[in-house]
Amino acid sequence: MNLKVYRYHRGMASPHYDIFELEPRLGMTVMEALFQFQEKLDDSLAFHYSCRGAVCGTCAMLINKVPRLACRTQVKSLLKGELKVSIIPYPAIGETVPWNSEEEILVEPLPHLPVIRDLIVNMDTFFRYYRFIEPVFRPSTVNPEEERIMDPAAVKKLEVYTNCILCAACSAACPVEGQNPKYLGPAALAKLYRFHIDPREAETSRLKTADIPNGWWACEFYGNCSRVCPKAVPPTTAIAKAVAELNREKKRS
Amino acid sequence: MIWGVGVVIHHHDILIIGGGLTGLRAALRISDAGLNGAVVSKVHPLRSHSVAAQGGMNASLGNIKSEDGTKDSWKNHAYDTVTGSDYLADQDAVERMCREAPTAVIELEHMGMVWSRVENGKIAQRPFGGAGFPRTCYAADRTGHNALHTLYEHVVEREIPVYEEYFVTSLITEDGRCIGCTALEIMTGRVHGFVAKALLMATGGFGRIFNKSTNALINTGDGQALALRAGALLKDMEFVQFHPTTLYGTNILITEGARGEGGMLLNRGGERFMERYAPHSVDLAPRDVVARAIEQEIAEGRGYDGGYVHLDLRHLGADRIMDKLPGIRLIAMDFAGVDPIQDPVPVQPGQHYSMGGIDVDINGATKLPGLYAAGECACFSVHGANRLGGNSLVETVVFGRLVAEKIIEDVETIPPTNDKPAEAAIESVNDRIEGMLRREGGDRVFEIRGMMTDTMSNKFGIFREKQTMQEGLDEIKKMQEQIAHVSLQNKERELNQALVRLLELEGMLLLAEVVARGALVREESRGSHTRTDYPERDDRNFLKHTLVGFRDETMQVSYKPVTLGMFEPKERVY
Asked: For a designed S-S bond to B122, which of B63, B191, B307, B380 qualifies (C-beta 3.0 to 4.6 A apart)?
């Protein structure tokens, strides 16, 4: 089986693809395959890695045309077609290179973000939108001596969104982001919603922060973000609820 | 030769190396004091290994009454910690940590961290190994993730400078004082200088010198190696924690919380073997005890082929597993193809934590003025010879804040230094890097790294013995010679990860030697350090800390006494 890897660095006229024949091991992940590539073929291959356990969010890339974490994606399962994710097609996952999905694993950088080198993309825009929504807790009261009391049921609802690992797979899967680079994107909006529904937060409406054309209103509900999220965070649900809430408020006023 | 155009030197009052829980907590405290602090990290802070911490953070909040109705206290926490440490912990440092622990947990809550809650809305606590009370505060099995994201949110809010993806290449000293560091900006390949009144090392553990480890791939002990080279001492480095339950195959951590929630360890015969090793605590005995038991079961043929036992969670039921251990379920499904609701999880012991580290006093100060350390890279020592689960997270935030406070106080009287030493240091690092890039032939980084991790796991693992350890030390010394000839295919400065890995490996081989030397001279069994040739704890000769440092280019071992006080050493019974 082959790994087909996107290669690019500054100064190159256009990217090319390296083909590498893998020595598969039971349970081998795409990340391990990339390490094997570095060891056996070319140690200049660049990709981000850290936890290798799907919790740090650093290794999202486009694998077989789906944004996924390399560390959590098993080579064998991919080839057997077990990891099919049905996402709505968008230009950035169109054909770039001929590729046989039964024998080859195609590894490319996350779309919608500028490529720095090989599989490493520049996340500045992603984190700029994260900062834009002011992701910091603003409590409604001065700090009590002990912890604030929280209903366990409220915690359950919050966890759905605090689970986000900021890997940017959702942004890369979002057809709107491909067309509109100014769209805040699913990760930032889901994060904003997490603070909005935190019962410890002050009453002021957090939702207003993204009540702009490139905020809540730009989402077209393709749902790709929720489908590719490795942590099952549903940005589409958050956005739909926020939009409904804002519409209700607007009707009232 | 200066690489690139012009010399870049950054100035800060206090420089924090490492962007995990310790580093970020310290950064916030320094920002509170109105000082100019900055964080330098080889990865984006959210990719730090703290994010992977699962089970929880110990603090005697007393939110859950024990079975006999008594309430937890910091003293109980301290007692369990000292006993768990096999009496090697310094009891003044333990007292400080346990007294401050509840405040540290509450602080995080006040910053917005989402904790799991009990019915009355207070922070939930679960039982953990070696603890007399349900003391471990948790956020399902994603405690580190929730804590790190919360601290990072505040760092972003305050616009604290973070130098992301900068690999620190050396510490700069002048007149016996640490005044800064050099760091390779990985993206561009440029070496920068940093000048500060004080540096806080917060770079985490060195688990990756072993081949089966729960640690992130980035845990290469860079901070310990930097400190050692700059003249600081390393303490108790032979005490390496092997976590009993790491997922067979990838060694990803399966939290102790899984047993805290009622999970049971079973051997191939379906026997709950921990009943034989720890009749009272059974599956919730401390990690050293459980790891040795599993290793022995496997060695005596009662494990499964390949070397693992079963962690059975099925009796907890689907609801409880999905509620309390959702991350564990995903890990087991993603990485072992096992759904814990239906099947037992295959587990084996694996390297997990470094009890030892940079020798610091109770305030986090090293022997080298201007250099401080906290978190896993430091050794206060609050964990002694064996750390209790849930105590590392609390150590990061307690000492991240306390050490920052001490530094804030100390830097008041430190005058600014000039840039000359930094300029010279940059030049010397550039020469070193250019030399590495010019090399041809020799071994490859991954080959030596593979040999090192095999040697460490096979010869300095759970059970240790003089002859094999001596062989191991000889192998390490040989690898240290080989690494001087390692060459890279990639000769570029810009984004050269192979170069970073070579720089990491140089430091790792130093640490491997320190572990080896400490383990060889400690002729006793204590906590995680088990000598088959010296099976008993020997308080008369070894109730003391091992110190390793460089003197005239060679490593020297010395000792210092353990601070007792509250609890007299006695036999540990679980």
From this structure: B63
Integer Cα distance of B138 and B257 in angstroms: 9
User: Within a domain: residue B84?
Assistant: no
The answer to whether position B526 is within a domain reads yes
Please tell me which residue in B259, B287, B517, B572 is annotated as part of the active site.
B287
Q: Which residue has the tokens 């999220």?
A: A229
Per mean pLDDT, which range of A219-228, B60-69, B437-446 is the poorest?
A: B60-69
Q: What span, in angstroms and rounded, lies between the C-alpha atoms of B190 and B199? A: 21
Assign B1 a pLDDT band (cuts: 50, 70, 90): very low
CATH number at residue B347: 3.90.700.10
Residues in chain B closer than 8 A to A26 (CB atoms): 249
Q: What's the pLDDT tens digit per position in B327-341?
A: 899 899 988 889 999
pLDDT band of residue B6 (cuts 50, 70, 90) is confident
- The number of C-beta contacts closer than 8 angstroms across A and B is 152
Instruction: Say how many domains are in chain B.
Output: 2
Rounded to whole angstroms, how far apart are CA atoms A53 and B145?
A: 13
pLDDT, tens digit, for every residue of A62-100? 999 999 999 999 998 898 888 888 999 999 999 999 999
- Domains observed in chain A: 2-120 (3.10.20.30), 123-252 (1.10.1060.10)
pLDDT at B69: 82
Of B120, B153, B334, Cβ closest to residue A136 = B153
Q: Is B203 helix (H, G, I), strand (E, B) or coil?
A: coil
* Helices then strands, each counted (H, E), chain B: 16, 21
Q: Which amino acid is at B308?
A: Y
B184-238, pLDDT tens digit by residue? 999 999 999 999 999 999 999 999 999 999 999 999 999 999 999 999 999 999 9
**pLDDT digits 0-9 by tens, B8-51:** 999 999 999 999 999 999 999 999 999 999 999 999 999 999 99
Q: How far is CA A233 from CA A130, B142, B146, in A?
A: 16, 14, 15
What residue of A is the nearest CA neighbor of B249?
A27
- Whether B377 maps to a domain, the answer reads no
Same domain, yes or no, for B340 and B425?
no
Residue B348 sits in the same domain as residue B426: no
Q: State which H helix or E strand residue B312 sits in.
A: strand B309-312
Of A27, A116, A137, nearest to B111 by CB-CB distance is: A137
C-alpha span between A41 and B6 (Å, rounded): 35
The neighbour count for residue B410, using CB atoms within 10 Å, is 17
Decide: B128 and B386 in contact? Cβ < 8 Å: no
Q: Are residues B429 and B326 in the same domain?
A: no
Tokens of A74: 């098993």
The pLDDT mean for chain B works out to 96
Asked if residue B435 and residue B522 are part of one domain, the reply reads: yes
Q: Does A221 touch chain B (CB under 8 A)?
A: no
Q: Which of B352, B371, B396 is the last residue of a domain?
A: B352
User: Do residues B513 and B429 both lie within one domain?
Assistant: yes
Can you tell me the mean pLDDT for B338-367? 97
Q: What integer is the mean pLDDT of A50-60?
A: 97
User: Can B287 be counted among the known catalytic residues?
Assistant: yes
Residue B517: give its domain's CATH number. 1.20.58.100
Same structural domain, B344 and B454: no
For residues B446 and B50, what is the distance between their CA atoms, to the nearest angstrom?
Answer: 25
Q: A139 CB near a chain B CB, below 8 Å?
A: yes
Residue range(s) defining the domain that contains residue B498: 420-539
This prediction has a pTM of 0.97
pLDDT at site A140: 85
- Residue B32: exposure state from Cβ atoms within 10 A (0-12, 13-18, ≥19): middle
The ipTM (two decimal places) reads: 0.98
User: Which of B149, B217, B488 minimises the CB distance to A43?
Assistant: B488
Query: Where a domain ends, among B327, B352, B377?
Result: B352
Peptide bond before B381: cis, by omega within 30 degrees of 0?
yes
